[in-house]
Every structure is written in C-alpha cells, then in structure tokens.
Amino acid sequence: MSADCIFCKIVNNDIPSKKIYEDEDVIAFHDIRPIAPTHLLLVPKIHIDSLADCGQRHQALLGKMLLLAPRLASESGLKGFRTMINTGREGGQEVFHIHIHVFGGGETLPKV
Ligand code: 5GP
Ligand code: ZN
Hints:
Elements: H1 6-11, E1 19-22, E2 26-30, E3 38-44, H2 59-75, E4 82-84, E5 100-104
Antiparallel strand pairs: 1-2, 2-3, 3-5, 4-5
The structure holds guanosine-5'-monophosphate (5GP) and zinc ion.
C-alpha cells in the first residue's frame, strides 16, 4: 500500500470503482475515462510503481494478470481487444501503480 496511490485506494475500497473481478492478487475495474466502449484496468493488489520496477519475483503475478486479460475481455463480450501497459512518464503512464489496460468494442481498433 502506497499512501497517495489512487489504485491502492481502489484496492482497499477507500474510493469506489466499477469492479468486475477480484481475487487474492488482482482486481479489475472499468477505467473512469474510457477510450473505447469497454475499457478495463487490471491491477495487482500489491503496489508496484511500473513494469520497469518488476523483477523475477513478479513473474507469476504478471503472468496471471496477462492471462486474465482474454478471460475478462471475453466475459465483457469483446470479440477482440487491445492490451496496453504504459511505463514511465515518457511512456504515457499517469498512475504509478502498474496496470494493464484492456479495451475494445465498437469499431475495429485502428492500427498502431
Ligand atoms: P496510465 O495513463 O497510467 O496508463 O492509465 C491510468 C488510467 O487510470 C487512465 O486511463 C485513467 O483514466 C484511469 N484512472 C485514473 N484515475 C482513476 C480512478 O480514480 N478510477 C478509475 N476507475 N480509473 C482511473
Ligand atoms: Zn498503489
């Protein structure tokens, strides 16, 4: 738990979120400013600043999060989806608690 971290507060139910999944390690909820008709965030319960701060000890957790993406996307009715992990300020990261974006729905996503 990091005192000023918005996602730690969501993990601890200190601030509300539209949660769609929770287990002992991970939660998933809807992004507050969706960039697609469905936009989910997969967040570990432990605080890790970013992907750049992960090491061998996080391998199982990262694998679990990645494998949750297709399951939650499918359960949300997505036929296809995009995953994204912004890393570092220059990588577009705004919330410094690692998370996987999962988004899709509506039109086919543009090529990146
Ligand atoms: P980043 O830019 O760090 O990869 O993504 C952070 C994401 O968190 C953004 O898409 C933003 O809309 C979302 N976000 C920021 N604050 C909140 C919040 O309080 N609740 C929810 N549900 N999403 C948030
Ligand atoms: Zn945190």
